[in-house]
UniProtKB/TrEMBL annotation:
Xref: InterPro entries: Chloroa_b-bind (IPR022796)
Membrane topology: Multi-pass membrane protein
GO cellular component, one term: chloroplast thylakoid membrane
Family per similarity comment: Belongs to the ELIP/psbS family.
Compartments, record wording: Plastid, Chloroplast thylakoid membrane
Pfam families attached to this UniProt entry: Chloroa_b-bind (PF00504)
Keywords: Chloroplast, Membrane, Plastid, Thylakoid, Transmembrane, Transmembrane helix
Predominant location category: plastid
Keyword set includes Chloroplast: yes
Protein source organism: Sesamum alatum
Protein name: Early light-induced protein 2, chloroplastic
């Protein structure tokens, strides 16, 4: 703390270099961050000895505007549109969790669950989630615009893809095994 008390004294009488460094001071007795140092100017000299000022740096161009999101029915539900994979992924995530949960609760495999009254529940859930996914898409809201740090649109797509694969693998395994997985 000896260096902190000698701000008005010359740098040579301010204690050891270790004390000055710990207090954030360099050998010239100024705070050692670069925010206080003046900006450097680069001057060029011409052949006749005159100083030539550097040319001004042109401003960076503004980025082009983002293309408008197309919200037509055929655009949203096109093969490469935002709707099919996102909706199928969301349905697969719900379906996979529901299938595993019902299998653990009742001991029935997927095929038995569908045969025992699962079709109306499946259709109702599919219609409800599809409409809930399509309405924002028709209004022009993208999943990327609603992404956060943890819950991103890419994570949702990958989780949906894995859920689709998991649901198919669960059904195939139960078919080959001839009964419930657990």
């Amino acid at each position: 703390m000896a260096a902190a008390s000698c701000y008005g004294v010359a740098a040579f009488s301010c204690g050891s270099p270790v004390t000055r460094r710990a207090a954030g001071l360099n050998q010239f007795f100024v705070p050692s961050n670069y925010a206080l140092s003046p900006a450097k100017r680069v001057l060029k000299f011409r052949e006749d000895g005159q100083i030539k000022e550097p040319a001004a740096v042109p401003p960076t161009p503004t980025p082009p505007p983002k293309p408008k999101v197309r919200t037509g029915f055929s655009d949203v539900l096109a093969f490469s549109g935002p709707g099919p994979e996102r909706i199928n992924g969301r349905l697969a995530m719900i379906g996979f969790v529901a299938a595993i949960g019902m299998e653990l609760a009742s001991g029935q495999d997927i095929f038995a669950q569908v045969q025992n009254g699962g079709v109306p529940l499946f259709l109702g859930t599919s219609v409800l989630l599809s409409l809930a996914s399509l309405i924002p898409m028709f209004k022009g809201v993208t999943a990327e615009s609603k992404s956060g740090d943890l819950m991103t649109s890419d994570a949702e797509l990958w989780n949906g893809r894995f859920a689709m694969l998991g649901l198919v693998a669960l059904a195939f395994t139960e078919y080959v095994k001839g009964g419930a997985l657990v």
